[in-house]
Amino acid sequence: MGIAIAQRLTASGMSVAGLDRSPSAACEISFVGDVTSADDVIHAVTETEKTLGPIYAVVSGAGHYESVPFTDVTDEQAQRMLRVHLGGFFACAQAVLPGMIARKEGSLIAITSELAVGGGDRDSHYAAAKGAVLGVVRSLATELAPTGVRVNSVAPGPTNTPLLAPDSPWRAPEYLATLPTGDLAQPLDVALCVEYLISGAQFMTGEVLNPNSGAVI
């Protein structure tokens, strides 16, 4: 998903830097690090601004998923979900906001999930982390509105990425048959939403775009 977003934003004329556990050729500048580490995020932001100039948009899309019955979820599993999804968004937002607020311009985008709204079988800790991100997005949008910084999110349904295991129930024909399109979302569908929120949605903040084929309405 991150690659598709980087490719789409690059194609639209933006300079893109990325932070991931592995380097990516899809980004003009690629940093290897951990989004849950504030130091790694600050380093990436500092070096990006030295090379590319001020950062006007950030997409927090680091992901971690596992399906576990609620009574079997360990504290470490629950905390890891929160560290990656909620902690990752916190680290990214806190690293770039001083500059955005000073310039009175900027866009923060969090990739959440339809499960944050609709829930799912054996998805309690994942849905909790994604739901927490939605709460921060809406609160931060209100807090930052007077500064000119917009905060929005994209909540995809099951998307055809490596994060979705080949034997995932979301890939089962029985599930796909319940969707109006009969298919999973593609990474490009998410990337198009991100592009719109950055460049075409100047009057939108605190909103959620839902590319999920009508699975959650």
Automatic annotation (TrEMBL):
Q: Name one Pfam family in it.
A: adh_short_C2
Q: Where would you find the membrane-spanning parts of this chain?
A: none
Q: Which organism is it from?
A: freshwater metagenome
Q: GO terms for molecular function, please?
A: oxidoreductase activity, acting on the CH-OH group of donors, NAD or NADP as acceptor; quinone binding
State whether keyword Oxidoreductase applies.
Answer: yes
Q: Which PANTHER family match?
A: 3-OXOACYL-[ACYL-CARRIER-PROTEIN] REDUCTASE (PTHR42760:SF133), SHORT-CHAIN DEHYDROGENASES/REDUCTASES FAMILY MEMBER (PTHR42760)
Q: Which family does it belong to?
A: Belongs to the short-chain dehydrogenases/reductases (SDR) family.
Q: Which GO terms describe its biological process?
A: fatty acid biosynthetic process
The record's listing under InterPro entries reads:
NAD(P)-bd_dom_sf, Sc_DH/Rdtase_CS, SDR_fam
Keywords attached to this entry = Oxidoreductase
What this protein is called in its record is Unannotated protein
- Per the record's keyword annotation, is Membrane included, yes or no? no
